[in-house]
User: Fold MYO5B protein from Rhabdornis inornatus.
Amino acid sequence: VHRLLEAQLQDQRREHEEEMEALKNQVDLMQEELEKQQQAFLQTLQLSPEVQVELGLQQEITRLTNENLDLKELLEKLEKNEKKLKKQLKIYMKKIQDFEASQTMVPAERRFHEQNMQVAVQRKEKDFQGMLEYYKEDEPLLIRNLIT
Assistant:
């Protein structure tokens, strides 16, 4: 038992020393980086005000360019997601219409009106805005389609 405890203590001591060495290396790297930044800052202060302003503008332009690129990537991802969701919505709307058609037999003119409503939904996907006209008896169907 005594040897086992000594072995564990030595392992812990070795791990502690390795961790301390890694932390010392990390501190040294951070100090070097800080010194580089301080030197760059001092060099910037020694420059004329016009050059300081120009450097500041260049840095800001670089920052904004990087930010714009990130935002463009995010926009592309969101647009792809939007297209995917629109496809899913169309599939689910078709499934609902098929299900409802199989549940009850629909008169010919009501079926024609539902096709017109589907066209209105497609227009809405194209960012058209406006009023929606519907029959009172179609209200539950319309609400269900809007929810899904």
Observations:
- The radius of gyration is 34 Å.
- Residues 10 and 45 are 52 Å apart (CA to CA).
